[in-house]
Recover the amino acids of this structure.
């Protein structure tokens, strides 16, 4: 009887310890969600918002914004989004000309739940699992 109770307690502890230790399995937020974790989902959402804001900005000004601050109130880009510290990620914004821009999101720590991302005016998000993503990185696919 004591062995059975002990086994049940160990099983219950094992079931609870995963979520308590941050090992909860990520559940995709939509069909085709390529994120591996909530932080990645946030990073990818940020990148999509930048792309949408840049499209709106270019439609209005006939050029891309040259800073994140210029994107505020374009699309759904908020003043808070202009900050480059995104919690578990750091943003790098580059605008080498009126027809070009690039955004990199690099995790503060690389691991299975934190890949790096890159997007430019073409709108294709690229990813790397162990280094900052660039224009030469593989395109992120829904099944990755």
């Amino acid at each position: 009887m004591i062995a059975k109770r002990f086994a049940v307690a160990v099983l219950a502890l094992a079931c609870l310890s995963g979520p308590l230790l941050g090992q909860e399995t990520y559940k995709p937020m939509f069909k085709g969600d390529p994120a591996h974790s909530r932080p990645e989902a946030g990073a990818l959402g940020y990148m999509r918002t930048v792309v949408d804001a840049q499209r709106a900005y270019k439609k209005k000004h006939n050029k891309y914004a040259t800073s994140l601050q210029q994107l505020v109130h374009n699309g759904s880009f908020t003043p808070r989004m202009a900050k480059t510290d995104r919690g578990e990620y750091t943003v790098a914004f580059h605008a080498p000309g009126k027809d070009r821009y690039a955004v990199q999101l690099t995790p503060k720590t690389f691991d299975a739940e934190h890949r790096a991302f890159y997007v430019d005016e073409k709108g294709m998000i690229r990813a790397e699992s162990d280094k900052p993503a660039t224009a030469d990185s593989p395109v992120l696919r829904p099944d990755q």
The first strand starts at residue 89 and ends at 97. The longest helix spans residues 38-61. Helices lie at 2-20, 38-61, 68-71.
